[in-house]
Design goal:
Length: 405
């Protein structure tokens, strides 16, 4: 391998670039990004949450590894990435809580540190939150389809991180270390990948032909579109669609301690966590249609998310929007997990996409794993990453992740 092309300058493309050189690659590489700076796509629009609480082993392993690497990143790169292990708190109704208690030994065995919480523990941890529904009008309870919170699960190693400086560091530090070998092409749109004789010969970007031995597709929510524009038919494309997700910065309730809470998930997957002196709030919209629209919807917060917050948290009616944005999940419609392998029909096209809302928290592990695969032909640090092979869609070996918010 002498020249590698990486399409996409987000945290995934950046981490792959960095880890390749960290692990000994000394050929040339070009990373192509259409925006005028690295990491301005989904990476900078994310909520920055990380957790190793998952239902699948591969996600537990990838995130546990990545959390350790986040914790070392400030030393590794000399930049602040806002690493904050404030915990991740899932709250549950009775039926799900029973399942969680049953599943807990799996986390214990995998080294994922969790704690089961009673409703009283939860109320102490999130000031102003009511786990029961006694304070509410029964009509509201029925309308919002609420049930009492029976308990919670706290992920002790989980928390939040600022992915943008990390992604930028991955790309810029690699360039600094290997200026002769690494090329960063910004403001460069990949029109298509050139396929010839079952291989990816290179790409056409801003009308220029760039050839390489291996093409890594790390273009997040745009990956399937690039393959489509390159003439790949649907049956050979990846099952990944762009799906809008929205975030709202709101002022927090006026209660002492609300800025010390963990990343908290309540009814229907509404989540919130401190963001400087505010709260960052989100909730995946169930009826969201795939597409490239990223317009944030004020009404969705004011007429849905905030109603749920009001029902649970004292003073949440005063949590007003300060700013808001929408971004895109690279949503894998088959099993909500990344695709990390060569494409079975194009021997030198490597796919690293489809991370469905957990790409930031897996990025260090993905970079390390992809570099191992490209340099040594196997996933050494996290062998389970082999389960994310594209072939799983054809062989019906889906890796279904059930804990996705
Ligand atoms: C609202 C929201 C909240 C999220 N919250 C979390 C969270 O809490 N935790 C978490 O782990 N993940 C979260 N995610 C998901 C996370 O942001 C992604 O999984 C992650 O950023 C994926 O990184 P990436 O490098 O694959 O994609 P991106 O960061 O999108 O990078 C892909 C890059 O490719 C470039 N590109 C696309 N097409 C082309 C082309 N034709 N030519 C050249 N360049 C191109 C884009 O400009 C982009 O910079 C969230 C996402 C959203 C939208």
């Amino acid at each position: 391998m002498d020249r590698l092309i990486i399409i996409g300058g987000g945290i995934i493309g950046g981490s792959i670039l960095y880890h390749l050189y960290k692990n000994g690659y000394r050929g040339r590489a070009v990373i192509i990004e259409e925006m005028d700076a690295p990491a301005q796509g989904s990476t900078s629009l994310s909520a920055g949450g990380f957790r190793n609480i998952w239902s699948t082993e591969v996600n537990m392993k990838l995130t546990t590894y990545s959390i350790k690497r986040f914790s070392e990143a400030e030393k590794e790169f000399g930049v602040s990435i806002g690493f904050d292990q404030r915990g991740y708190l899932f709250t549950f109704y009775e039926d799900n809580f029973d399942m969680i208690k049953e599943f807990k030994p799996n986390w214990d065995n995998a080294g994922v540190r969790t704690e089961i919480l009673t409703p009283e523990n939860i109320e102490k941890m999130v000031p102003g939150l009511h786990t029961s529904l006694e304070h509410l009008d029964p009509e509201i309870v029925e309308f919002l389809e609420l049930k009492p919170i029976a308990g919670g699960l706290l992920g002790l190693d989980c928390g939040i991180v600022n992915p943008t400086p990390l992604a930028v560091a991955y790309i810029e530090k690699t360039k600094e270390m290997y200026p002769e070998l690494v090329e960063i092409k910004l403001k460069t749109h990949v029109d298509r990948i050139i396929f010839e004789g079952g291989r990816a010969k290179g790409v056409i970007a801003n009308s220029e032909v760039i050839e390489g031995d291996i093409v890594v597709l790390a273009a997040g929510a745009w990956s399937a579109k690039i393959l489509e524009d390159s003439g790949i038919p649907e049956e050979q494309n990846i099952p990944v669609v762009p799906l809008k997700r929205m975030l709202y910065v709101v002022n927090p309730p006026e209660i002492e301690g609300v800025l010390n809470i963990p990343f908290t998930i309540i009814d229907k997957g509404v989540y919130f966590r401190p963001e400087a002196m505010n709260w960052l709030v989100g909730k995946a919209k169930e009826e969201q249609e795939p597409g490239f629209d990223t317009e944030p919807e004020k009404d969705y917060y004011e007429e849905f998310i905030n109603y749920i917050m009001q029902a649970r948290i004292d003073g949440a009616e005063y949590c007003r929007i300060q700013s808001m944005w929408g971004g895109l999940y690279a949503h894998n419609t088959k099993d909500k997990n990344g695709i990390v392998s060569f494409h079975p029909d194009f021997e030198n096209l490597f796919l690293a996409t489809g991370f469905s809302g957990h790409g930031v928290m897996e990025a260090p592990g993905i970079g390390q794993s992809v570099s191992e695969f490209l340099l040594k032909g196997k996933f050494e640090t996290i062998p389970e990453v082999s389960q994310l092979d594209y072939k799983r869609f054809r062989e019906n070996k889906l890796v279904k992740e059930t804990i996705v918010i």
